[in-house]
Design goal:
With 247 residues, the chain is an alpha/beta fold. The protein contains eleven helices and ten strands.
Length: 247
């Protein structure tokens, strides 16, 4: 069974994190599969919008710790699924939406900063425990986060690692609306279908204008990746991961 499930509803490609027994923790292979799904959708003229989904209670618990410990032994993200996904993310031209219920940990939160619209249930929690694990923020979130929500709130989320509720995420500006759990996916799909019905060239041109020059985003992501890899190999991070695994 694949842990990245793709389906279509008309011109909307639905991409679901599909590892509920592990709270959708993302393995290296899942990163490859996620990047592949996005690249395939971007190249398919029949697809106009991407929609990211999880499962009830867990959008994604972030990186699979076991996989990351293996990557840490190499001291580099080069050639990994993580690197591939981080390269794809800022270059997505078609609208990408997300529907979040429950946990959105680490990259489960930072990838939302790249989405064009995000919906979440009242029970959702957005947590980025990078510093707690001896690491640094990734996915260009050190650049996009302060832009999106202001420096102080971004510091609270990305550096201090304080959890944000769905209501706080709306206040911070990276979630559009709080939706009841039973209505979440239908609401997100309806919005995605509405976007898919708009003139597509004009829509993508508008997105490009609003996103601006992606070179800064790509550069920030690369710099974060280099420091992230260095931090993975640090004694501080190893001790933090050992303490995490012991809990």
């Amino acid at each position: 069974m694949t842990h990245i499930e793709t389906n279509r509803d008309g011109a909307v490609q639905m991409i679901r994190f599909n590892r509920p027994e592990k709270k959708n923790a993302i393995t290296n292979q899942m990163y490859h599969d996620l990047a592949e799904a996005i690249e395939t959708g971007e190249a398919d003229d029949a697809i106009s919008v991407h929609l990211l989904l999880g499962h009830p209670g867990a959008f994604t618990a972030g990186n699979d710790v076991g996989d990351f410990l293996m990557i840490a032994q190499t001291g580099s993200l080069s050639g990994s699924g993580v690197e591939r996904y981080l390269t794809v993310q800022p270059r997505i031209e078609k609208p990408i939406l997300a529907a979040v219920d429950g946990l959105a940990v680490g990259i489960g939160t930072t990838l939302l900063l790249h989405c064009d619209m995000v919906f979440a249930t009242p029970e959702s929690r957005f947590i980025t425990p990078f510093v707690n694990l001896g690491l640094v923020a990734e996915n260009a979130s050190s650049l996009i986060g302060p832009r999106a929500m202001g420096y102080q709130r971004a510091f609270e989320l990305l550096a201090m690692g304080e959890p944000f509720s769905a209501a706080r995420a709306v206040e911070a500006g990276f979630v559009n609306a709080v939706i009841a759990p039973e209505d979440l996916e239908a609401h997100a799909l309806a919005v995605a279908q509405k976007l898919a019905g708009l003139p597509q060239q004009a829509l993508r041109a508008t997105k490009r204008l609003m996103k601006g020059d992606i070179a800064q985003v790509v550069d920030a992501s690369q710099r974060e990746g280099e420091i992230f890899a260095e931090r993975l190999a640090s004694d501080e991070a190893k001790q933090a991961f050992m303490a995490f695994m012991a809990r």
